[in-house]
Write a structure and sequence with these properties.
420 residues; three-stranded mixed beta sheet; binds N~2~-(3-carboxypropanoyl)-L-arginine
Amino acid sequence: MNKPGNLVEINFDGIVGPSHNYAGLSLGNIASASHRGDPSYPRAAALQGIGKMRGNMARGLAQGFLLPLLRPNEETLRRLAVNPAEDRALLAAAWSASSMWTANAATVSPAPDTADGKCHLTPANLVTMVHRAQEWRDTKAQLDIAFGNSDHFTVHDAVPPSFGDEGAANHMRLCEGHGSAGVEVFVYGRPGGRFPARQHEQASRAVARLHGLDPARTVFIEQNPAAIEAGAFHNDVVSVANERVLFTHEEAFADRDSVYQAIRAAFPALEVVEVPSSAVSLAEAIKTYLFNAQLLTLPSGEMALVVPDECQESASVWAWCEAMLASNGPIRQVIPVDVRQSMANGGGPACLRLRVVADPATVDPRFLLSEAKAEQLEKVIGEWWPEQIDPSDIGLPELAKTVRTARGKLLESLDLTILG
Ligand code: SUG
């Protein structure tokens, strides 16, 4: 029998892998396309990520992490018969550190929402992009260990193709408190536009069924095709939810009034904090990643929005944040963080984390962060992560050796060499 225990939200951030680079692999992701070919700084990228985790821990929040996957991925290179001199994009795909964006690792339904009272996790198949489609089996191997306590967790296989699933980035949960039963909102895209709609409605519906969600407490809504067209390749680029609050851009959803109505019908306590296009244009929201924020409940009960530094540099976004704080709404703090290396590939603070509501005592402690472990991670990263990668370095045997060794050192230091 599983007892409810001390259910809290734990953010599992992806540690940025040592092969982090800018290859312009994600069609429809404007930052990825516009930074294609830039030199990258994996060590700085990983340290920025640790800095963000440290900040949230210092605020009294539970923090976990997932590890970078093994790159370059020899299996991808072999199965696609990649010719390194000619197929540069495929080569880069096999080297991608994209598993850092753990909002795409899985969809998570906490125990209070599911029929069997367990927390269910379904890894995202990420089939739309070749560099991401190679992630899920190795991600699942980590989830199987981190959430291996079968009294409390069930880890499923990914939804089969061709229904694209991008995980928690297209999933929101509304609830009175993290430990109480919630309403889960799945956001899908309709295909046919200029850019791929990466989340298929049928994938969302399959995940809801797999997780044993109550249909009366599950809502399926369509992303605004204009938002996808403008570069919101995942819903979490234009909205985020926490407890009773839905923080969203006016143009996030296809039919906003009926979306709010549908959510409210299932969750009457809903509070919508909507940013109108007249205050922040869709383009500016996507450029600054205002909504790709971590909307967190602090131990005091107040909500804080952890946004990328880029928000502070935008006159319209920052003016809106200041007005919002002055208006005494439910979000009481706005906290900028530096995750620029990830941002340049289209990954903000929210992309870098997977939210799991669970009792920390039921999670494999090797995946939980403490101050001491953060220091240990910083030491390994400082010593072994490459400082800089230029696009022409991708494919070099010396660099392959460097990134494999670096990851190996991390696994050793965390007692997780089982992940190979
Ligand atoms: O899948 N970027 C990622 C960014 C993922 C952001 N995640 C969320 N919104 N939750 C993607 O598009 C770029 C890699 C490159 O171009 O090298 C990339 O994969």
